[in-house]
Amino acid sequence: xxxxxxxxxxxxxxxxTADAYDRLHGEFGQHxxxxxxxxxxxxxxxxxxxxxxxxxxxxxxxTTGELTAARTELGRIGKTLxxxxxALVLAQSALxxxxxxxxxxxxxxxxxxxxxxQAPSAADRHDPDHRRSRxxxxxxxxxxxxxxxxxxxxVDRALAARLRHYATRAxxxxxxxxxxxxxxxxxxxxxxxxxxSGAVPGPGAPPAEVNAWWNGLPADRQQWIVAxxxxxxxxxxxxxxxxxxxxxxxxxxxxxxxxxxxxSPATGQGRRKLxxxxxxxxxxxxxxxxxxxxxxxxIGDEGQGRGIISFGNPDTADxxxxxxxxxxxxxxxxxxGDADRAKAVYDAAQRADPTRSTASIAxxxxxxxxxxxxxxxxxxxxxGVDAYRRFLEGQRVTHQGAPAHVTAEGHSFGSLLVGLAAxxxxxxxxxxxxxxxxxxxxxxxxxxxxxGADHTYVGAASWDHISHLGWFTRDPxxxxxxxxxxxxxxxxxxxxxxxxxxxxxxxxxxxxxxxIGRIVSGHASRITPAAGRHD
Length: 535
Known about the structure:
Strands 3-4-6-5-7-8-9-10 form an 8-stranded mixed sheet, sandwiched between helices. It has a two-stranded antiparallel ribbon with strand order 1-2. The radius of gyration is 29 Å and the shape is globular. 53% of the residues lie in helices and 9% in strands. It has 535 residues and is of the alpha/beta class.
């Protein structure tokens, strides 16, 4: 698709065609119902037997099947046209905004999308910084134009192929075959939403690319995609926090309605997810209008469920921290205990430095172990490493103003995930790492982390049995691990010590959470130190 075609075409006509097919689909549905009640079921109710009756019954069933298949085809065509039109409008909006920005930059663009500018003045001609700046601006604008054209062309070809598919089926009669219609329903290449996905960055796109795409859309298109297709942006790293929150609140309500309606609560995992979704909704409702604002940065039903909740806006906060929970972390915990921990860290960071703003996040982007045998499975943590790294990277990309001070927190099995992420060759987008109640990180020394040993902090209670396990290579609280160990409440000789690091209620020992708050707020030099263990 060329620039002029994408810029000038009125895709509203496609929407009108989709509306016409939708009306036809509805009217044909009424025709089908009239056939079923007025002919098929009425004849069946007569008990008609004999040679003619025996021949009529399968003939009537065949006609009913053909009419049902035809109605299905009409419905899919309407949805396909609408998804294709929506995708083309998105690409068109991105192109038009890029062209506006070209004009604002006092540049020009030719019919192929190449960006140029007028010859510089004599002074600018000898200023290498001026030329580099103009070259960079032109390159960015040209890339945006090329991306919009490429996306539109991809959608255009896919839409044409699908319409040919349905036209062929209408011509050869396969569109009246109920079996073929059923197979189509299960074919992901024919899913209408897949067309719209062609107008957004692919699932493997880095957060910077997603953010550039988002910023290239006009505000009205951003609002439209949040409201109409929240599934495309709610869980995308690189989308600003406030937009993610609006999209995910829509998705959360959909999940609750879907799981309550389709019988999923009858299954253990379905019931667990539904209860978790409801607990998160309760947390959001209870926190409405309070400070700090509570944002839903992620929600999903993949695996055991996904949920990310933030106290404070990470796009504007001076300090951002993301806590990865461990054994037993599920959606209910994200709306309950893990949210309480994130809020406790927020409060502690504010106590440590009330002049700085904070965003404290509870992150569940993996299938955490739900039993001790599962907690011995390294692959569970490995399965969340890339998602966590991408999330932190996305926070860097969407942050406004000076870069935030970012802390990666891991508790229990979650500390293993954080450690694995920090040991990746390219590291993690964090300044400090906090490991709490850790059974190990698969590292021998804190210097293996991208933040370095001097920016790695460990909290381990003397009565925290989990922190003594040493399941994954070496105890992070040991002297030989090389991290800073901070003081915590020693706990009591039971398993409560493993969960008490964030206690901040009246009369409770706040040594641990206050030390965490000092690290998060950039005042790690003020922590109360503790001696490292000896292996």
